[in-house]
Amino acid sequence: MAYTDVTVEEASWLLTAAGVAPLSKIRPLAGGWANSNYLLTLNDGSQLVLKVWDERSPDEVELVIKHTCWLAEHGVPTPAPLLLGENEWMLVKDNMAWILMPYIDGGWLPSDSSSLYELGKMQAQLHGVPIHESIPTTFAIGYVLWEKLVKDARKDDSMTPFLQMLEKETRLLKQRIPMDLPCGIIHGDLYPDNVIGRKGEVLAILDFEEICIESFAMDLVTTYVGFGWKDGFPVPELWDALLAGYQSIRPLTDAEHAALPDLHRYAVLAVAAWRYWQFVVNVPGTEHTNRYLEMVDRLDKSLPF
Hints:
alpha+beta
């Protein structure tokens, strides 16, 4: 995976543009598969996050920033970037976008019932945000990615059993999942490394890179894929907590309830397809090559809905 080493001079370049205190310390931050993150401690004791977008073009980053600001303006707890100069949210260096964000002091949200109840509430509130016209209508790691993976593999004569399964599942799920489920803005990737919090409290939601207009219920089960499984099996109490929190704000429709098993399958395969693309096709030969199989192994497990 790409990773950008940031020097003291480069960090200071952004801090000067933001008009904040000088740099005292810099250290790498964990989290993020497609960008480089650093914690900056300033001379006045305040802290910021410096993010370099290694795998998205500046135009794409500009759109992500626009969407993040839109959500923050509508009450979603997500850190909006600092202005760098009079009206710039990012600076471009070596054709990569560099931004500064507030640092949220807290760990990743744990997977326990009280935390998932609060996360469900927060996700329902996100789903109530009005649609912005610039938000895409395609789930980037869904069918569009699956079909591209299959098309490219057939052209290169590199089909695998996983891609054959993905081709079959595309046809089946398109038939089974209703097209008219309630939809709107979704996060698309509410996994533990995208939610800062502590037990029973959500502090911030991060990384709206997969934001799009899609099924609310699909987004909800995607969160369960990320938070609700332990040791290769789904935990029913965690689903119950997530659903209860969500439905305290926005009850699911009967059609959504009926579609949950197929939506969960879609969400699991979407993660598997992204991992296959990232670690088999895009950056092969790492210790993560077979990471997509973790999701494949979930397809035959009984679900609590």
